[in-house]
């Protein structure tokens, strides 16, 4: 998920916003979250989010909830999302 953080003027502010968002996603939706790109830019972030379930329907619902929560999070604009699903057969 690519994010823009228009109100962040420092990496410290960015860490606060991303930390709060990541923590909320982990606790409310049970997903794993990591910042995977743009660590050195204070107004951009790319988060990797992982969810595990017994069916793709449930995973898609969880990831849609992740996107909605990110869109509603103060100081965060979602620029783009990309979903990749993996099954046991792969």
SSE order and pairing:
Layout: E1 2-4, H1 11-29, E2 32-37, E3 44-50, H2 56-72, E4 77-80
Antiparallel strand pairs: 1-3, 1-4, 2-3
Explain briefly what this protein structure is.
By secondary structure, the chain is α+β, with helices and mostly antiparallel strands.
Describe the structure.
- This protein is an alpha+beta fold.
- It has a single domain, classed as Alpha-Beta Plaits (2-Layer Sandwich).
- 40% of the residues lie in helices and 22% in strands.
- The chain is built from 2 helices and 4 strands; from the N terminus they run βαββαβ.
- A 4-stranded antiparallel beta sheet has the order 2-3-1-4, covered by helices on one side.
- The longest helix is centred in the first third of the chain and has 19 residues.
- It starts with a strand and ends in a 10-residue tail after the last strand.
- The relative contact order is 0.25.
- The model has no long low-confidence stretch (mean pLDDT 94).
What are the salient characteristics of this protein?
elongated, Alpha-Beta Plaits, 4 strands, 90 residues, four-stranded antiparallel beta sheet, alpha+beta
Task: Tell me what portion of residues adopts beta-strand conformation.
Answer: 15-25%
Cα separation of the termini: 23 Å
**Name given to the CATH homologous superfamily:** TT1725-like
Give the tally of β-strands: 4
What is the CATH first-level class name? Alpha Beta
Tell me which CATH architecture applies here: 2-Layer Sandwich
Share of helix among residues? 40-55%
Molecular shape: elongated
Let me know the largest β-sheet. 4 strands, antiparallel
Spans of at least 5 consecutive residues whose pLDDT stays below 50 are: none
Judged by helices, strands and strand pairing, the structural class is alpha+beta
CATH topology: Alpha-Beta Plaits
| Rg, alpha carbons | 13 Å
What integer is the average pLDDT?
A: 94
